[in-house]
Structure formats: C-alpha cells, structure tokens
Amino acid sequence: MRVGLADAVGRVTAEAVWARRSSPAFDAAAMDGIAVSSAATVGASETTPLRLPPDAYDVVDTGDPLPDARDAVVMREQVHYERTPAGPVAELRAAVPPYQHVRSVGEDVAAGELLLPEGHRLRAVDVAAAAAAGAVDLLVRRAPVVAVLPTGDEIRPLGGAVEPGQIPDTNSLMLAAQAREAGCEAVVLPIEPDDPARIAAAVHAAAAESDLVLVVAGSSAGRDDYTAQVVEQAGTLVVHGVAVRPGHPVVLGLVDATPVVGCPGYPVSAALTFDIFAAPLLAALQGAAVQRRPVTRARLSRKLASVVGMDDWIRVRLGEVAGRVVATPLSRGAGVLTSLVRADGLLVVPAGTEGHQAGEDVEIDLLRGLDEIRRTIVVIGSHDLVLDLAASELRRRDPRISLASSNVGSLGGLVAVRDELCHLAGSHLLDPASGEYTLPYVDRLLAGRDVAVVRLVHREQGLIVRPGNPLGLQDVKDLTRRGVRYVNRQRGAGTRVLLDHELTRRGLSPDDVEGYAREEHTHLAVAGAVAAGRADCGLGILAAARAYALDFVPVTTEPYDLVVTAGLLDAPVLAPLWELLGSAAFRAAVEGLGGYCTEETGRRIR
Amino acid sequence: MRVGLADAVGRVTAEAVWARRSSPAFDAAAMDGIAVSSAATVGASETTPLRLPPDAYDVVDTGDPLPDARDAVVMREQVHYERTPAGPVAELRAAVPPYQHVRSVGEDVAAGELLLPEGHRLRAVDVAAAAAAGAVDLLVRRAPVVAVLPTGDEIRPLGGAVEPGQIPDTNSLMLAAQAREAGCEAVVLPIEPDDPARIAAAVHAAAAESDLVLVVAGSSAGRDDYTAQVVEQAGTLVVHGVAVRPGHPVVLGLVDATPVVGCPGYPVSAALTFDIFAAPLLAALQGAAVQRRPVTRARLSRKLASVVGMDDWIRVRLGEVAGRVVATPLSRGAGVLTSLVRADGLLVVPAGTEGHQAGEDVEIDLLRGLDEIRRTIVVIGSHDLVLDLAASELRRRDPRISLASSNVGSLGGLVAVRDELCHLAGSHLLDPASGEYTLPYVDRLLAGRDVAVVRLVHREQGLIVRPGNPLGLQDVKDLTRRGVRYVNRQRGAGTRVLLDHELTRRGLSPDDVEGYAREEHTHLAVAGAVAAGRADCGLGILAAARAYALDFVPVTTEPYDLVVTAGLLDAPVLAPLWELLGSAAFRAAVEGLGGYCTEETGRRIR
C-alpha cells in the first residue's frame, strides 16, 4: 500500500527507494557572504587587495542559489566594503578557489542514488530524506493484523465484576498492546468458554481475518486446556510445549494457513511467549528485522539455580554499585507480572546451564537505558512501605531517578552491603542480648569496614488480625493458643527475629506456634494472608494492616535504619534520597501511613 | 486526564498507581493435580502410602481456586488412582507441606502496594498489571503539543512544484515526526515568508496553542534570519548560538511563557537540534525520563579532526571486523541528511578535544542494534552502483543484513583491508606500468598477507557529457580544449588514476585540463555536476550518466574487483553476498543498469 510521507513513519518499505531528484537541486551558498567568480579573484592578497565593484558580486545568505556566472562564496567576515557613488565596493584580501563555500547540487542525494533499501523501518529522517529526493508517498508493507482470542470459563472481561474464583482478562489487554508496539493492528475477540467446538469456530473465524491468532490460555495439558487439540483438529499442530521457562506450555501451529500461537495463561508466560515467538514472526511478516534489545554485563547479586533442559528467562533489577552493574533476580513465578513491571533487564540462563553463582558475571538484555540504571538507588534488605513511598516521591521529583528495593530480610541486606551488591540495606534487626537494633549486627558482619547507619523511621510492630479481632489476640503469648494460625516472615527477616525474641522473653518456643513454618516475604503479604483468611494472625507493621483494613494489636516500637558504606554517603546517586528525608512534606506523608514516627528520620546514628 | 487502559500505553502516569486489589484475588492451584488438606497427609511415605477417598481431595487445574478446607496441591504426576465403588481413591507416597504448589492471594500484587510510580511511561506489561490490581483507567499526563512553524521565502510546501532556487519543506515533516516519536502531538503551520512582523504574529498564535514552538530556519545571522529578533522582541531570547556542530545557530527563548526553539534550516542541524534541545524539554514537560541511546565502544577507521570549542556530532557507519566494532565517519555536512539516514551511530567529539586518531577507541551512541551491526558487510573503497544494488537486494532477501559502503577511492579501500577496518575493498586501480588492474597494488600494499580478489563486474568508463554532446567531445585529448570544464574525482580514486593514465598515454599533462582540481567523490556526483551545468564533462561509468539522462562517450572497459583477507572468504557475514553474486536474477539486474558485464562476476581471480 502507498501512504503519504507523514503517515509512513514506523512502517516498513515494500520496495527500495531510489532518489528521483537531487538534493539540493541547485548549487547554493554554504555560508552567508558574497558570491563571486573565482577567476576574477586571482592575484588578490593581503598586500594587493582586490576591489570588486557592485556588479561583480552578489550578497547571498546560506542556502541561496548561486547566481549565474558566480562559482564561489566569500564569508561575510572576510569582506570589507567601501562606499562609492556606484555602490559598495567589496574588498578581498585573498584569491578564492572555485566552489569555495558552495553546496553542490546533489551534495545530499544524487538523483539515481539508492536512498533506502526494501524492508527498512522508516524513521523521521528517512521520510524527510525521501521527500528531499522527490518522493511524495512511499510503498510500505501492510501492518499485520493480530487477533487475540481469550478463552476460559473463569475469565471475565476487564472493568466488569469479578467474583471469587474468576480472573479478569488482563492478558488480552497486554498481548494486544504488545502487538501494537510491534507495529501491528490488534483485535481482541470476545472471551470463549472452555468448549473445544466454540474455540475451534472462533479460531477459524479469526484465522480468516488476521495474519496471526493468539489464543490465550488452554495451552497446557489440564482438563480444560483445548488449544493444542483445537489446532491439531482444525489445522496443523507444530509444537506443543517448548523448553522455555516461564512459558513452556506454548502451542504453535497453523489453521487455514494462518499461524496460531497458544499462549499460557500466566501473565509472565504470556508476555514472554509474545516476545520469543510472536514478535519474530510478526517482524518476518513485515519483512523487517526484529528489534533486539541492547545488552550489558552485570554481576549477579545472588546464586541462581536453573533447571537443566530449559531456557530460564529471569527478570532482574539493575543498578550500579562501586562502578559495576549489579543484577538482582526478581520473583521467578510465572504469575508474578509485577516482576516484569519492575524488571530492568532479562537474564536468559540457557538450557544447558545449571545456573550461576553469586558474584558471577552475566549478560543481561536491557529493558531500561543504562543511564537510568546508573541513577537507580539499590536497596536490599528488609521491606518497609516508607521505601515504596520514597521510590514514588523520588520519581515524581525527577523522572530519571529510581529506587529499587529487593526484600530479602535485614540480614540479607547487611550481607549485600558487605559484598558491594547494593547502596543501602534496610535493617531493623534486634540483638536480643543487648536489646539494641542493627548496630551489633553491623559490628559483627561488617567488622573493619567504615559503615554509616542512617535512621529512616521508628515504626510500630504488632499483631495483624482480622477486623474486630475475633480471636481476641492481645499478646504474643496468645499465638500459642490452640487453633490460632500464625503466618511468619522468612528466615533473616527482622520481624521474625522480633517474634523469636518476644517468644523467648515469654519462655515460649517456635514449636508452640502453629504456622511458624509458613513464610511470607513482606508485611503486605502477611496482611494479605490474614485478609484472605488463610491465617488468623501475623506480626507486621500498622501500615500493612491498614492497607487491608485489618485490625492491629501493638507489640513494640522499633527503629528501621539504612546501612551504607561510609564512602557512598556523599555519592551523587544517593543525594536525592537524603534531600527527600529532610523534606517536611515527605515526613508528613510517612506519618500519614500510620504507625510511623519521623522524629529521627535522616539522622546519622553511626 | 484519565484514559482507558488500552489507550494508556505510551503515555506517562500523572500519579502513582497503588494496587486497589490483590492479584491473584484468591489462593489458587499452581499446578495441575489434586487439592488436599496437608494435615491429612502427615505420615505418607514410599513405604506407607496414604489412600485418600474421593471426598478428601479435589481435582484441580492450574489457576483453579483452592477449594475450602484444602491448603496444598499434589502434582498430577505424583498421584496414583485406584478405582473403587465409591470412586477413585488417590494414593500419595509423600506427606505434603502446607501451601505446596499454591499460588497465594497477592502473590503478584498485594492490595496497598505501590505498583507504578508517577512519571512512568506505560508499557504493555504495566497496563496489564494495573488492570490486575483493579485499575480501569489511569491518570496520565497530557501529551505536549508541538507547533512547527516553517519560514522562508524560498520554502515551498511538500508535494507542490519546486522551481530552481526553491526548497521543499522537508524539515517540518521531519520535526513533526520526531515530535510524534517523542510522544507528542504535532501541528505543522503554514509557511511564513521572511517578514519579521508575520513571523512574530505566527509565533504568538502558536505559543497560545502549544507547549513548544519550533521555528524552522531563520536562526542564523543572515539578512533574512529573523527568529532571534522575533523571539527577543516578542518574549525573552535566552540563547542564540550554541557550541554544537552541526546546528550551532540555534535560538532558544520564551514567548508568552511558551518555549520557542529556532532550528537551523540545514536538515542535519534541524534533526540534531530536536534531539539535543527539544527532546529533553519535551520529556521534562511529560515529566518522564528522556530515552537515551545505548552505547558501544568502536575503533575509528580514519583520523577525525574536530574544531576545539564545539561539540562535534559525527555520524558513523558501524560494522564488526576481526571481532571489533569499526566506526567509519560519514559526511559531516550539515546539509547531508542522508548521513543521518545511513548512520548506525553518533560519535560526539567534545568541545575540548581536537579530534581522534585513526584506530583510536571511541564511544558511539547507537542508532541501530549491535546484532544488526554484526551482520553488516563493511565495504570501503571505490564507489560503484552495483554495490548499492547489492545492498538493496541483500536487505530485501533478509532484513537483518546490511551492506555499508564508504567511498574513499580504491587506494583507501586497500589500506582499510590492510588495517582490518573493512571486510571488502572495492577496487579498479590501473597500474600504468603493467596495464593490470588492482593486483599490482595488492602486491605492494598487502605484501605478505593472504589476500583474495573476487571479480565483481567489468564496466565501461567514459566521458559523461551533456545530452547531445554539444561540445562534441570524442576523446580524452578533447579535455584539454580551451573552454572545456572538467570535473575530476578525488585523489586515490581509480577513475582519477585512469584519467592520469589516459592523459600520459597521449602526452598530455593534468595542467592542460581546466577543472582537474575540482573533486567529487562518486560517479553520481560527477554526473550531477555535468547535469547542473557546473562542468562540461567528467570521467565515469555509464550507469551514472544514465541516472541523469546524460550522454556517454566510451573510453575503456575495466574490471572492478573486491579485495578481501583470505581468512574472511568463508566468514558467515559474507556468505549472503557470495550467494547473491551467483544469482542469475541479480546479474540480470546489474546488466540492466547499463555498461556492465557480469560474465566474470563472483570469480576468484586470486
């Protein structure tokens, strides 16, 4: 199809573009000055200046066509005028070679020259160059049409009511957006129930109208997974299941000569299935090269095990610490779409590899620019909502700044500071022997290192319980009551250390607490488990209880601190954070979360 | 403004997005299998299998909600069934820990969690995650409106007639497209003549309706350059001229509180002015980080001088030779838009630097992906249209392949092979002593190196003259006739060597040829000079004469060869080219250009 130049940006050329006319189309002045005949200037010098009468030169600006009988330009700055009755006489103190400061016809494009190859994705400069070379429209390849077919009894359209057990159709929204980002038109079809006949009819209809059909979910081998069966019966099933994780229950086939991709229902699997299988296919349909992501080398912040026999696509956060890019793996769950949202890059662990050691040098496909990554504050350690609030507020103030926090517990954070894998560790580790927080651990783990500790907040820790506290839990000792189901934090988390301490103080043992072994990784996840009725109680912060409208029984107030190598205190990457901690508006927002005291916020306590 | 999720991709969040509901909203099976109560499985082992009656388990597929009273899932593969009258009894050979293979409520997003910060440019995964977390629409920042105001008496709208001395308005097309690529709305206003009052009125009107006004041309200091004056009188002139090349006559100011950028009229200057000044401003207006380009290190293929006191933005072609990325500078002319079209990267030589030596390691901002660059065939040397045709045909066959040729003359190409700066050198150097082409030069310049030479074509060289050959030029000796204006090729070009040889044979001297010192760098540029009437005659190939509908007086037939390090002959990067040279269709297309013989095309002559 032919499109006008303004509409051609982003499209792919369907034929080579040869220049029809030269640009510039005439010899033109390349400087402001006077146009002269070079032959007339022979002999001019400092000692024998040449005087040109008004009819022997023309004043020209850059871009003006060279007047007839002129073949060179003298820069304004090198001409002196003398007023005479006949008009200004120009004085030259040097001879001028032919074509000095002349932009020749065809300097940019010569007629007949190859301007753009076929299969080229057009950018702004390309269409402008085509226009200069005489094109008024361009033959471009048609944008492929992608049909997205959501299936599943439990899937509900976005925006409508979602009952328990039902799932909103976020995948179709995402896949259609990915298709549009890949330069295609996208159509989202109505949701089909788990009925192979209906799915088959919908696939046939979609295949007739589109260049690629994406069937969402039903690609696995469960009772209600019909995509492979439908493709096999309606056309040709080429592949069912690929050695890629997440995403391995992928279906690839052809129905009525149209390619069909069955995407897994887990959102990360669906997104990566598009990337790995649909995007190259769509690029090939457009006859253009698939856009590959830039890569960087990075140091892995922790050990990463991988199943041999599968390519493992690991989402990572990136930041630059001590002059090296550090990659921290995010959740590997196929259902954790936020791991893709938060990812700065992708690490592919090939099928033949068992994984990587901590500190190993790996290659990362970049999802964000390295300059943004260099302005990322890397926080590893305990989780606190104040860090989330700071991340949002820093970004609002300057869009180039990120704060990326990984929740591995306070102890893990201190280890990360030791190994130069983060800028800051969030910590609230209680030392039961001294009753002091964090500092005794710093002394032990970071002995001999010059480390600073900055107070972030004081915060209330307490029992998060269901609204109205139906079990009447008033103290940590109540956790040992029969039938009270507790939900704990992971090993190394300060809140778990706090529970252990409170139990010991009361002469109780972890074995007395039902659910002690059940681990969640954040305060919000603990509150979520209580809200869902999966547990009756968990230890956590007030703000998490509030987020889920749960009740809260205070247990203690504790300091939450940031641990940082002293040499990094003045690093430019951290300056915006220190400034933020000093802001009254930010402190007010923190107190507004509930359960926080900001009196000592920003104070260096070591 | 609030927009629906499907329309939000590419927009920038105007507020932080916090999760309103958890995703998943319920505990769900993470595997296909059976849901059980973990407590009921205590004690099961290989030696003491546990038998669960039909009412003690539920068959579940991945994603199904966990039924009441179940808290764990056993994978299908680990369950053996035994048929009984009461229904299938499930046999387990291991105890199941609580929450095994259960996807917990909030595993992806917990209600109350920060999902996306303010100022975040939304991608497909972001809107899908927002949908999963309960969002139905998002508050996004308004797209800035950019007004493009073309000015100049000589500027004509695109698509209309362009008389000699007039210039089509390609800059407005390009700047509007750049603004759209930057996520803005763009409006191109009617062209204003060089009249300060009219330009001022148009700038005021545009400022009232837009967030940024780009005034095209008139930013210099020539007679008709009014942008700075208009901005100064209508508002505040902040900057006039910046130390950036190309592009230094930039005007930056404010009119009625709207920023105004005066762009130079040279297209490369205009494009870079947008990149350097407008793009960061527009990103700031959207409150988002400007997209920075990835970078690479590269080896410079030739010396690059730069004016101290100016940042010099050099367009380069890139390719990988002998395992290293090589950067070859393109034309530095501000009017050579094709240098941006052909560029794979930008090299910024900072104001304080005098330039770089050949072979120096430099940092390049990438305009194309490194994987495409690795598949680029780098040809340095003489120019021939067959190389252009090959470039187009290779790209058509496989969009990931490029052939980049730099025209530095045959001799320069052989030096580039010697220094491992290219894969291939195009050469047609005549050795006057032996009458042989190229091989004697290879022996001298590449002595001791294992070099292969592959014939590309034989081609006719001759005198390119105006239609009808009005001066009746029949032989090289006619070039010495009084009043015949010749246009020559640059030093090191094979065609120049040929002229010298033909002159010597006839006992003539270069001094006898008017215009011998006038140099062009390609056959097409020579033909363009003749077509424009700037010269009467030039030596060149028939295809160039044909491109400009000029006449041609044959002088000789010569071989044009490709010189390559023998070790590279089998390199994968070159395989598509050798295949192409063997194709009958390609040979036919070459002969169709006129003046070519492909009888020996692809034959290795050494």
Question: How would you describe this structure to a colleague?
Answer:
- The structure is a homodimer of 606-residue chains.
- Chain A has 606 residues and is of the alpha/beta class.
- Chain A folds into 4 domains: 2-24 and 107-139, Molybdopterin biosynthesis moea protein, domain 2, CATH 3.90.105; 28-103, Molybdopterin biosynthesis moea protein, domain 3 (Molybdopterin biosynthesis moeA protein, domain 3), CATH 2.170.190; 145-286, MoaB/Mog-like domain (Molybdenum Cofactor Biosythetic Enzyme, Chain A, 3-Layer(aba) Sandwich), CATH 3.40.980.10; 424-597, Periplasmic binding protein-like II (D-Maltodextrin-Binding Protein, domain 2, 3-Layer(aba) Sandwich), CATH 3.40.190.
- Helices cover 24% and strands 28% of the residues of chain A.
- Chain A contains 15 helices and 37 strands.
- In chain A, the strands form 10 sheets. In chain A, strands 29, 30, 31, 32, 33, 34, 35, 36 and 37 form a 9-stranded mixed β-sheet that branches.
- In chain A, strand 20 (251-255) and strand 21 form a beta hairpin.
- In chain A, helix 2 runs parallel beside helix 5.
- The model of chain A has no long low-confidence stretch (mean pLDDT 90).
- At the A-B interface, strand 11, helix 1, strand 15, helix 2 and helix 5 of A face strand 11, helix 1, strand 15, helix 2 and helix 5 of B.
